[in-house]
């Protein structure tokens, strides 16, 4: 038999407008589309290879902010989370710790996350420094990335892949 594959279920969370859909679409298609339906909540199935292993990812791109029963179900379903803010939107950054707290409450454990500061192309509108992002990530004991969905750097694949690796590690313990 060949090398067994692994699966991960990922939920993308963050304030409306931070670029969750743009990041997910960029990761899946390597393209940037300027406008998405802001109310669209959608799960993508993505087959890829990470560290020479066959991987099936399911990625839920959330919309809206309410912590409904449905969202709690999604949180329980997920193995890990991409928490997104925009470096040009201070409030989106301040919401991250609330989101993380809600996740930990629902999961009843330290939830597996990566923190992503999006829209680095808007450097002239920066409201959150790199260090502030890094410090929050350290507090949450998760990896930190800054990126731009519109410019589409390698870090977009990196953080999805890194989250997958962390999920896999935790499942093996
Ligand atoms: P969501 O509500 O979090 O899913 O955000 P969207 O992906 O719909 O993006 C919201 C708006 O921000 C759209 O107008 C996008 O074109 C824009 N946007 C997303 N990512 C970036 C980025 O990296 N840089 C810039 N300048 N705009 C972005
Ligand atoms: Mg969206």
Automatic annotation (TrEMBL):
GO function terms (MF aspect): G protein activity; GTP binding
UniProt key word Hydrolase: yes
Keyword check for Hydrolase: yes
Its EC number(s): 3.6.5.2
Reaction equation(s) it catalyzes: GTP + H2O = GDP + phosphate + H(+)
Keywords: Hydrolase
Assigned protein family: Belongs to the small GTPase superfamily. Ras family.
Protein name: small monomeric GTPase
Organism field: Potamilus streckersoni
First-to-last residue of the parent protein present: 4 to 176 of 221
């Amino acid at each position: 038999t060949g090398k067994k594959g692994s699966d991960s279920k990922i939920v993308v969370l963050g304030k409306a407008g931070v670029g969750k859909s743009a990041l997910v679409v960029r990761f899946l298609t390597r393209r940037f589309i300027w406008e998405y339906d802001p109310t669209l909540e959608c799960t993508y199935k993505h087959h890829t290879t990470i560290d020479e292993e066959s991987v099936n990812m399911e990625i839920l791109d959330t919309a809206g902010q309410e912590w409904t029963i449905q969202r709690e179900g999604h949180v329980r379903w997920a193995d890990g989370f991409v928490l997104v803010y925009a470096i040009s939107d201070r409030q989106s950054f301040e919401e991250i710790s609330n989101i993380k707290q809600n996740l930990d409450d629902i999961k009843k454990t330290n939830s597996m996350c990566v923190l992503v500061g999006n829209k680095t192309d808007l450097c002239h509108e920066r409201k959150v420094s790199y260090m502030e992002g890094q410090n929050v990530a350290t507090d949450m004991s998760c990896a930190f990335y800054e990126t731009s969905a519109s410019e589409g750097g390698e870090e977009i694949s990196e953080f999805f892949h890194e989250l997958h690796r962390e999920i896999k590690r935790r499942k093996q313990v």
